[in-house]
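Service request form, structural biology core

Requester: graduate student, group of Dr. S.
Request type: structure prediction, single chain
Budget code: on file
Notes: please return the result as structure tokens.

Sequence provided:
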Amino acid sequence: MIETKTDLAKKLKGIVRFDSAGSLVEPSESPLSEGLIDELVESYVFTEDATLKEALYYLIGAIAQRLSIWPASIQGLYEAMGRGECSGFTVPAMNLRGMTYDMARAAFRAAKRLNTNAFIFEIAKSEIGYTFQRPAEYRTVLLAAAIKEGYKGPVFIQGDHFQINAKNFAQDPQKEVQGLKALVKEALEAEFLNIDIDASTVVDLSKPTHAEQQRNNYEIEAELVRHIRALEPKGVTVSVGGEIGEVGKVNSTPEDLIAFMDGLIEELRTKGNIKEISKISVQTGTSHGGVVLPDGTIAKVKLDFDVLEKLSKLSRDRYGLSGAVQHGASTLPDEAFDEFPKRGTAEIHLATGFQNLLLDHPELPLDFQHELMSYMDKNFVNEKKPDETQEQFYYKTRKKIFGPFKRAFWSLPKDFKGAFGKDLEDRFAFLFEKLGVRDRTGLVERYITPIELERSPSKATLDILKTLS
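Core staff response, request fulfilled:
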């Protein structure tokens, strides 16, 4: 691991060179992919030297840009879907909670195998907290993984479930919204060019009309959309999503969608004619992580594909959106996935299934598994409900071990990482195939234009980069 800026200069000599203004001249790709990028990204994640971390953030972003890897908004593709110019596929949005570098590498390998770049990496507001991955880190690790695997093209990075906490909102609405605005700003500065706002938590079904039920939801959405448009980078239209039904609750209806969209459009058009959203998340019968049975297995879900199809079509025909978004889908049976493109689903969110593949992998060292369980027993015992079995408790809680064990996961044996990485790559390839995104590179390139984001290094970073001139 690189400890000092002097170490960094030695490592990069003859491989990476900057001019006096801090612009990357030309990186040598082979040494980076052969091992140097591993060291750079590990140093970025774990260094406690703020100056070195900032320099590595800038460095990895600059290298990615010169190697034709760039954070992008999926807006152009979604607008084309809304116009009916392309269909027959559902974009997978994948939450990587732990071993993010290795998981992203597996996804990029699968993407190269299947000739696709129609996929999103995302992280939710809650996951940022318990996985100890701030937006800047998530972006940097993803770009490093793309460099490592020789991937070229757009990297769609998304803030998932940037959500209003209903309890906090009831106590102090302004404070809760301001907190979400701060997270949006942090994410945009970290080159997240896709943001999903979720104020469905404050939908009030006790109100007599759908418009009144959705009012808090669409008013908050409008305020956050205006906030995003004011901050988005020059030349970029950030893809923004809304949500009308809280996942795990009552299924969404056409009336819900119309009330939300009509209210949102009115709010945005009367206060500046602001660009609207590109997609809408709905509830169709799933729940995040699935429903855990007493033996630790996942209950079968009755997902209402008719609701999903109807709302996708309505959102396109009436509002020009890309379609509906399905959450909580990674634990569905395999035979369900090819149904999503058939029903016109724009995007599907996948998270817990990848976590399960990792934590239930037969080659995950047994002593490490016991260490994780002991940690949960000690630190989360107050979260165990009286009627829960131990298996249910572990399944529900284990997502929270990724932050405290970040270094331990990073340092797992190479043999395990190799076996797990191959299985995960195959899983990504299976999902890409089922969701219809194979061979979509040309389509994405038709609607997504390469951009070079403006990145201004600080004086401290510039001083470090000058040593590489």
